[in-house]
Specification:
Distance between the termini: 92 Å
Helix content: under 10%
Strand order of the largest sheet: 4-10-9-6-7
Shape: rod-shaped
Number of helices: 0
Strand content: over 45%
């Protein structure tokens, strides 16, 4: 075997690593020493592509919860890209994907760059930080104008809650366990009077933190 780069082998089925990319003329010559050294040979072209090198950058290594994170591809000699964002989400062939994390703490992001023959993978760790910031507005105006018509829990990273509102007589006028649902001022089919109402909220956050909130809400017209 003559591999076209100055190297050769006498093995029956050799393997060979090329030190650089390029086109090589590989020649196999055979000789039958038992029959007057009759010989034959065949030559074929072998293409060795460049080895892809995977790499990417981010704007830092710590990012806020539910804020977009942009990854910029800096790989070389590739045809395809495969991104794994470390939270079960993947995407293909995007040069600079943006991803929003619905989970917190450390995440390992991996990028695989490949061509028709080879592949390379690089992984980097990032950190998704979370700061508890939960509250309830102290007033709302359920007058049907589409502005501030509903009062509800505000904040990010809420995984569980019980939100209750009471009138001045201690009667519960509203309750929900859905952070997307609020009170529109209606109780038993009737829009309630302008008044101060009390609320309690039992909230569990994505970091395991448990908050108990209490306060007043003023219904305005």
């Amino acid at each position: 075997w003559h591999f076209g780069d100055g190297n050769f082998s006498n093995q029956f089925a050799p393997t060979h690593n090329y030190s650089s990319a390029g086109n090589y003329a590989v020649r196999l010559a055979i000789i039958d020493s038992s029959t007057c050294n009759i010989s034959d040979s065949v030559t074929t072209q072998v293409t060795v592509p460049e080895q892809p090198i995977a790499n990417f950058t981010t704007e830092g290594d710590t990012f806020k919860f539910k804020k977009p994170v942009t990854f910029t591809n800096t790989s070389t000699d590739y045809l395809h890209l495969f991104w794994n964002f470390g939270d079960g989400t993947t995407t293909e062939d995007e040069e600079s994907p943006t991803h929003i994390y619905e989970s917190i703490y450390s995440r390992t992001v991996c990028l695989t760059a490949s061509n028709d023959a080879c592949a390379d993978t690089i992984c980097k760790d990032i950190y998704i930080s979370f700061k508890a910031l939960v509250g309830v507005p102290n007033a709302f105006t359920p007058n049907g104008d589409g502005i501030n018509d509903v009062v509800k829990i505000e904040g990010a990273g809420i995984v569980d809650l019980v939100f209750r509102i009471y009138n001045r007589w201690g009667e519960k006028v509203f309750e929900t366990s859905d952070k997307n649902i609020g009170w529109d001022g209606i109780y038993k089919g009737v829009l309630q009077e302008m008044d101060a109402y009390t609320y309690s909220a039992d909230v569990i956050l994505i970091n395991g933190q448990h908050l108990l909130l209490k306060g007043n809400i003023t219904l305005l017209r």
